[in-house]
Amino acid sequence: MMAESTRRGVPEATVGRLPGYLRALTELAERGRPSVSSDELADLMGIRSAQVRKDLSSLGSYGVRGVGYDVARLSDQIAAELGLSQERPVVIVGMGNLGRALVAYGGLAPRGFQVVALVDNDPELVGTTIEGLAVGTFADLDPVRTPVAVGVVTTPASAAQQVADTLVGLGVRSILNFAPVVLRVPEGVHVRAVDLATELQILAFHEHQRLLADSRGDEAG
Amino acid sequence: MMAESTRRGVPEATVGRLPGYLRALTELAERGRPSVSSDELADLMGIRSAQVRKDLSSLGSYGVRGVGYDVARLSDQIAAELGLSQERPVVIVGMGNLGRALVAYGGLAPRGFQVVALVDNDPELVGTTIEGLAVGTFADLDPVRTPVAVGVVTTPASAAQQVADTLVGLGVRSILNFAPVVLRVPEGVHVRAVDLATELQILAFHEHQRLLADSRGDEAG
DNA sequence: CTCTGTGAATGTGTTCACAGCG
DNA sequence: CGCTGTGAACACATTCACAGAG
Question: Name one Pfam family in it (chains A, B) (predicted).
Fold first, then answer.
């Protein structure tokens, strides 16, 4: 039956899939599905069922043998693991096109993230309003009055490190970085990087390999 | 000295870092640095030097012992490996905020990607111009006249699968998906997914863990 | 008889540590 | 010497395959 013992240490690879499970489970719940098998979840996620079972068992979750997982229960369990019970205040720094797109993106609020501040250093932008939120400077951000859990960096690369330093100074320990630079942060601060050009280049690599393989096949065949 | 033999099979994890190396090397080249050591590259990338050496040796690249890697040579080598010698035509589907932000993003052209078409199904948008490019429908896309290497999906989740199917039908074999769904594509088509909410949830997980650790530390201490 | 949970096997990635080139 | 290149050790992740719960 397994006790409270196994409970610590969800593998990082599993953590990376938890949001995906949550998404799938939310959809299933909306369709009124009471339970789901590892096979079906695997199919929805594009992975194998053994992976699903390993992942979920690492949460200490209980499925029911012969039946599957209770959709609502598993949803709650994953949400709890991700710490989504509390609202997480987000500040977005850099109100260019991307920053504005993220503010307008509707997917945050329903997942427990609330954009509480917009920051830019362009005097033309400061004081304007985007999607009902005023754009300010860092000086307007009082860490006590406006606690921030996550900082999103959408500035040009040249400004990103300084912005990260400021965020860290404000007590932010999670940063999502869209600028194409490696941010240096103190131990204990988490950074995740998202970079369009990187992603495209990885895709380009695989295209290129296919081309090489094809042309070699032509010659051989 | 090693011949043309080792040349095949760059590990996927290494591929994921190649764009980063390229970025670092480009900066070094701009500063006029002729060569660089694995230690310094590692520092720029936020990884360990052994990793750098393993990665670069898997390309069959030659460093010079006692000196380091020739910046220009290594740059060329990585660019070649990524297949960046040829321009890759990109189509962006979904001209919402994110789609527009990507069109306006300046980081593509200098890295060998050219946005050749913008697609949306909103009649209000079709015919308008964004950053000098006309917005059309899929019907306007002739795969012969406008070959497309990479499709970028920035539509709502509900439309993404259908868009992916259409892209695949047009011969696209690389898709960058910003919609929060798992795309089903035939064997041989590569999909990379970027999802803001997923990234934030992963950050939230680590925040949550720290909190648990802290409170457990408090009780214990 | 179905589907979970999990040890064991395999595969992949990272790090160590050092031989050996320049 | 200083630095690369790489086997060997280790760590992590995935997959297999099956015992056993319901």
Answer: Put_DNA-bind_N
